[in-house]
Automatic annotation (TrEMBL):
Matches recorded under InterPro entries: Aldo-Keto_reductase, NAD(P)_OxRdtase_dom_sf, NADP_OxRdtase_dom
One Gene Ontology term, aspect cellular component: cytoplasm
Superkingdom as given in the UniProt entry: Bacteria
PANTHER family reported in the protein's UniProt record: AFLATOXIN B1 ALDEHYDE REDUCTASE (PTHR43625), ALDO-KETO REDUCTASE YAKC [NADP(+)] (PTHR43625:SF40)
Signal peptide start-end: none
Name recorded for this polypeptide: Aldo/keto reductase
Keyword entries, A-Z: Oxidoreductase
Organism annotation: Dactylosporangium aurantiacum
A single GO molecular function term of this UniProt record: oxidoreductase activity
Domain annotation NADP-dependent oxidoreductase: ranges: 14-304
Length: 324
């Protein structure tokens, strides 16, 4: 497995997003999920991503069981900052909460340190300097090796980085979500911060395997995502058909083409496609062997998928929680 460097952290060029194993994408199968994580490690995909709010809490426990006895092979990333009480969510960046959340995650994961600890969402009520002061203390105590941030504005990243170096930022980035190109990527390259690209397959849409909203389980959050609803769904389906056409011409799957595109955007970018099945994991890993020529990249760029995609990437209330 090729390696990439995120700031000062070296890890596998492709990661594995574990969220969907426990929630948001329909029913899970813990046995298959554990087998998928272990297969990922066998294939050299050692960068695993989870968060305390996935489940909530159960995804960290699942990851902890899967890596038991193989901790030294893993670059382990988790996140704090989104509190859940039933169906209610809130953002918390208070220093006391940072400390409590970190200790709880260490216990659930069954480890003595976390390789990359992200602030999942920014609490606008708490100065970022206070939150990152507590995170810096965690690094000094040896509980955390590197710090990250997610969905934060340029100004917030600069302020956090002034307290303690930001190793990586996790942002949605794919052929149909190119927001980081507006300013964040430039800032990251200025400061030496890596980009972890979540949902690099557009929440599965870019795989080309989603053809009708009825495919989604009632518990699947995509039923409520604007890009998967009504007229937006069909418009986006038409865009994916264009991706499929290019992929077929190259002899790869649409998902592999989409992942190869993200990988081609810079060696400081690590995509973390999520899956809960070994079959899809192996297909995703094969994207590392797909080389996109300048002509391929130009053809993809002509599709203008990022500007033509219909619908916002989250419902309005969730979009409002992002730090802009």
């Amino acid at each position: 497995m090729r390696q990439r460097t995120l700031g000062t952290l070296t890890t596998s060029a492709l990661g594995l997003g574990c969220m969907g194993m426990s929630e948001f994408y329909g029913p899970g199968d813990d046995a298959e999920s554990v087998a998928t994580i272990r297969r990922a490690l066998d294939l050299g995909v050692t960068f695993l991503d989870t968060a305390d709010m996935y489940g909530p809490f159960t995804n960290e426990q699942l990851v902890g069981r899967a890596i038991a006895g193989r901790r030294d092979e893993v670059t382990l990333a988790t996140k704090f900052g989104i509190q859940r009480d039933g169906n209610t969510r809130s953002i918390n960046g208070h220093p006391d909460y940072v400390r409590a959340a970190l200790d709880a995650s260490l216990t659930r994961l069954g480890v003595d340190h976390i390789d990359l600890y992200y602030q999942h969402r920014v609490d606008d009520r708490v100065p970022i300097e206070d939150t990152w002061g507590a995170l810096s203390e965690a690094v000094a105590a040896g509980k955390v090796r590197h710090l990250g941030i997610s969905e934060a504005s340029v100004e917030t990243v600069r302020r956090a980085h002034a307290v303690h170096p930001v190793t990586a930022g996790q942002y949605e980035y794919s052929l149909w979500t190119r927001d980081p190109e507006d300013a964040i990527l430039g800032l990251f390259r200025e400061l030496g911060i890596g980009l972890v690209a979540y949902s690099p397959l557009g929440r599965g849409f870019l795989s080309g395997e989603i053809t009708d909203p009825s495919q989604f389980d009632p518990s699947d959050f995509r039923r409520h995502n604007p890009r998967f609803q009504g007229e937006n769904f069909q418009r986006n389906l038409d865009l994916v058909a264009e991706v499929r056409s290019l992929a077929e011409a190259k002899g790869v799957t649409p998902a592999q083409l989409a992942l190869a595109w993200v990988l081609a955007q810079g060696d400081d970018i690590v995509p973390i496609p999520g899956t809960k099945r070994r079959t899809y994991l192996e297909q995703n890993v094969a994207a590392l062997d797909v080389t996109l020529t300048p002509d391929d990249l130009a053809a993809i760029e002509k599709l203008a998928i990022g500007s033509d995609v219909a619908g916002s990437r989250y419902p309005a209330d969730t979009m409002a929680s992002l730090n802009r």
